[in-house]
Design brief:
881 residues, alpha+beta, 23 helices, elongated
Length: 881
């Protein structure tokens, strides 16, 4: 509400301190204070000639109305002595200059649109009237509402396919839109204190909508998996926030840091874009980590489709696992890592080839949609007065003495003989300075125009200044754009180095590795180079540009590489963290690099591709805006996300991790000791990678079967005639022994536990049997050490103990109240004790020990005279690979 009341003051002023174009602009403001306002052009073409009496009368009346309009300082008509040269050689095209009383940034849009409507009112059969200029372009800039709407619809379709639930589809969209509105309002307020370009809100919508939906998607997906694994809605929301929420917070923070890193360039226009985008991303992270969990808790089980709820009620909780197409793809990458890595790298390098000839610059009205009045005015002026007329150069000289004035006049005569120049005006004296207008023979976007500016600065002007105190500076919009590209090019390398070093350090802290962050840095460079190559091919070479209706071929916007690198860095970090954190989690459990990479890719691939698909649709929708600058941003980011998610994270990164083996997780001991610890996943959720254990510890093994009186570990523990069926993927530990004084009772009378944690059989059985299940969460994580547990009353004459996402039951006559917050390390419970910090619950007369070497295996131990469960043979079984 405050943002709407206060409004906004966006400014497109581009100042480059220390450059010739900025110095020329400052001198012009001092020498010609009455002409400091924006200057736009009304141009017309008459089939009977611009000087035909009827045409002249019609246009003169219109110009008089324009001169009397608010915000207009003066109008220079071709029918006056001052504007006699404003008629083309063939006499059919003429123009009038409209001088506003303020720069474009200070003009009210209604005042400018009124001038546009007055100009268009002079149109008649045989008389074409159009208007162009910076103020008109800003006032008539098309809305991106349609593009944003298309992006939202596309995201909704992808979410509906991914979730199969209308409510689950709406939740990410609501979160993203709420964050977007708050971010845009805040950006408008901040524009009163900080210079933010008018393109800032558009950029905020584009980036905020994409990352907002993606961040919510990650958390909602984790929450739904928790529900399917048997957790309550509240606990599922807490677990989702404590896992995926951490990754979102980490990724969003890095995006904001990268965007704010644009401030190191010390260019006001670029800094404003970075601030606007960072504010929007900040609000998306805030909404995803605060509003979203509350909304998920409120919706409860309704975020699951009716089919999923019926399946859950009928079959019970099902742990999240890897199967289907993604498991097959992960296995294929594991079997053929080298050729797949070579193919993926080759594709990226081929796409990056056009970047070698990348030319930076700025687009003009020639790239506006062909139907707009600004584009028509540009074409009329180019036809009547030459292509360079739309981008004249302004040479400003300090004429403080008669000798300087004479030298400046000689320069004007010299310029008329220089190649590449179509017209040169006579010097116009001002207060302490004079002005010469130079019209090139080529358009503002042409490379030849840039070469002309360099030639004037390097040779022609120094020759004229020799022996005098005259100083001449080349200004004008074309010179400003050229200086912008020149200034930003060397700073771009510094910016790239900053974000690469930042990314390396963050990933090294998060994953305790040197190779993983190094590979991530190379992947960022590959994705950036390939996406810039796509931009150069489309917008610089013109491949497919006509089909996109985005103007004509020309240079790529100067600020785009910086902006894309910042956003791409953050998005790549997002996908990298989501993929590698899951791989590292599996590596910490198994110590098997191949299995870890395969499982991580199989379990995260679907979500990464869904998130990337949403971003691709959202970014691509902005190509429909008809604005070349916005189209470049949208297409560039869409290409970057497409290549990063579908090629790098799906093929190249897993293949390289398979080839690297244990080197993925190497970090020198001395460096590990001095580095601070940065945890993306819950602090205790990821045990340390397993190390080789002595033979005496080899008994802590994964489950197989056990004969009478034997104990094996992994999928479950059984004794005295019981049998163990290994849990899914041999990582869910269950405990099942016959009921007695020494251990917690089995689920079935025969002491059978199937499937470990999350299996429906664990919630069935007679009252006299009791079970405590210690297992994995719905996302494949084990129950963390020291987790809160509590005995609860099921309401059916039985108690229950929650351990992670599992619920066990036991009779009231044997129940012991375990209060929430009583961690394993705090000592014994009646009749037994907890063996170490990795354990959680003690049985009645025994203990439960989750060993360090077998992170997800449960070991039941009891005194020899209690329970009849004998200790496992230390030498028995196989060690996890």
């Amino acid at each position: 509400m405050t943002g709407r009341i206060a409004g906004s003051t966006y400014s497109d002023a581009l100042t480059l301190p220390g450059t010739g174009s900025t110095t020329a602009l400052n001198l012009l403001e001092q020498a010609f204070p009455g002409h400091a306002g924006d200057q736009d052009t009304i141009v017309w073409r008459a089939s009977d000639g611009a000087n035909a009496p009827a045409v002249r009368a019609r246009i003169t009346a219109m110009l008089g109305q324009v001169a009397a309009a608010p915000a207009v300082a003066s109008v220079i008509s071709p029918y006056s002595a001052r504007g006699a040269a404003q008629v083309s050689r063939n006499g059919q095209i003429a123009y009038a200059t409209v001088v506003f009383d303020a720069p474009q940034a200070g003009l009210a849009v209604p005042d400018v649109t009124r001038v546009v409507h007055l100009a268009e009112s002079a149109r008649a059969p045989g008389v074409q009237v159009d208007i162009g200029g910076p103020a008109v372009e800003n006032a008539l800039r098309p809305s991106i509402g349609i593009s944003a709407g298309v992006g939202v619809v596309a995201a909704a379709i992808v979410l509906l396919i991914a979730f199969g639930s209308l409510l689950a589809m709406l939740v990410p969209l609501v979160i993203a839109i709420a964050a977007l509105i708050s971010g845009l309002m805040t950006t408008g307020l901040l524009s009163h204190a900080v210079t933010i370009p008018s393109a800032g809100p558009t950029l905020g919508i584009l980036i905020g909508l994409g990352v907002g939906v993606d961040y919510a998607l990650f958390i909602v997906t984790r929450h739904r998996n928790n529900l399917k694994g048997g957790m309550s809605p509240q606990d599922a929301a807490v677990r989702a926030l404590n896992t995926s929420g951490r990754a979102v917070l980490f990724a969003g923070t890095t995006v904001c840091i990268a965007l704010l890193g644009m401030l190191v360039l010390r260019i006001g226009y670029i800094s404003g874009l970075g601030i606007a985008a960072a504010i929007t991303v900040l609000f998306t992270v805030a909404a995803a980590t605060t509003l979203l969990p509350a909304l998920l808790g409120y919706l409860g089980m309704r975020v699951l489709s009716r089919r999923e709820r019926r399946r859950l009620a009928a079959a019970g909780p099902v742990p999240d696992g890897s199967s289907g197409a993604w498991a097959r793809l992960a296995g294929f990458v594991q079997r053929h890592p080298a050729p797949l890595a070579a193919v993926a790298a080759t594709v990226m390098l081929v796409l990056a080839i056009p970047v070698l000839s990348l030319r930076l610059g700025s687009s003009d009205a020639a790239n506006d949609p062909a139907s707009t009045t600004t584009h028509q005015a540009y074409e009329l002026l180019a036809t009547g007065f030459g292509p360079g007329f739309n981008g004249p150069l302004q040479l400003v000289g300090t004429t403080g003495s008669p000798a300087d004035a004479a030298a400046f006049a000689r320069l004007a005569r010299t310029l008329r003989t220089e190649p590449g120049i179509a017209a040169v005006s006579a010097p116009v004296p001002g207060h302490g300075a004079a002005l010469i207008s130079v019209t090139p023979t080529t358009s503002p976007e042409a490379a030849a125009t840039g070469h002309l500016i360099s030639q004037l600065r390097d040779s022609v002007i120094p020759a004229a200044e020799g022996g005098t105190t005259l100083h001449v500076y080349v200004g004008g919009v074309t010179a400003v754009n050229g200086d912008f590209a020149t200034v930003i090019a060397p700073k771009l390398l510094i910016f790239v180095a900053v974000i690469l070093v930042l990314g390396f350090l963050l990933l090294m802290l998060a994953f305790r590795s040197l190779l993983i962050p190094a590979v991530a840095a190379v992947m960022n460079l590959l994705a950036a180079a390939a996406s810039f190559g796509v931009l150069a091919a489309v917008f610089q070479y013109g491949w497919g540009l006509r089909a996109l209706n985005l103007g004509q071929a020309g240079p790529v916007e100067s600020f785009l590489p910086v902006l894309m690198l910042a956003v791409l860095f953050g998005l790549s970090m997002d996908y990298e963290v989501f993929l590698v954190s899951r791989i590292r989690e599996e590596w910490a459990v198994t110590g098997d690099n191949h299995q870890a990479v395969r499982t991580g890719q199989a379990t995260t691939g679907r979500v990464i591709i869904a998130a990337a698909t949403i971003m691709i649709f959202v970014f691509s929708a902005f190509v429909l805006s008809g604005q070349q600058v916005i189209g470049e941003i949208g297409l560039g980011l869409a290409a970057a996300v497409l290549l990063d998610a579908f090629l790098l994270r799906t093929v190249l990164v897993p293949a390289l991790m398979h080839l690297s083996g244990r080197a993925n997780w190497w970090l020198p001991g001395w460096l590990d000791r001095i580095l601070p610890h940065l945890s993306i996943e819950p602090a205790a959720g990821l045990p340390a990678p397993p190390s080789p254990a002595p033979a005496s510890d080899q008994g802590h093994q994964r489950a197989g079967r056990s004969g009478p009186g034997e104990t094996e570990l992994g999928g479950g523990v059984a004794g005295d005639g019981g049998r163990v069926d290994g849990g899914r993927d041999q990582r869910a530990a269950g405990v099942a022994v016959p009921a007695g004084d020494g251990a917690i009772g089995g689920v079935h009378p025969d002491g059978l536990t199937r499937g470990g944690a999350g299996h429906p059989d664990a919630l069935q059985g007679p009252v006299q049997h009791r079970v405590i299940r210690v297992g994995r969460t719905a996302q494949g994580q084990r129950q963390v050490p020291g987790a809160d547990v509590e005995a609860v009353d099921s309401g059916r004459g039985q108690g229950g103990v929650e351990v992670g996402d599992s619920v066990g039951r036991f009779g009231h006559d044997q129940a012991e109240r375990i209060r929430r917050g009583q961690h394993a390390a705090r000592g014994p419970v009646p009749g037994g004790r907890v063996a170490d910090g990795a354990g959680h619950l003690a049985s009645l007369g025994g203990r439960v020990d989750v060993g360090h070497d077998d992170a997800l295996a449960a070991q039941v131990q009891s005194p020899p005279d209690v329970g009849g469960v004998r200790m496992p043979d230390p030498g028995h079984g196989r060690r996890p690979r």
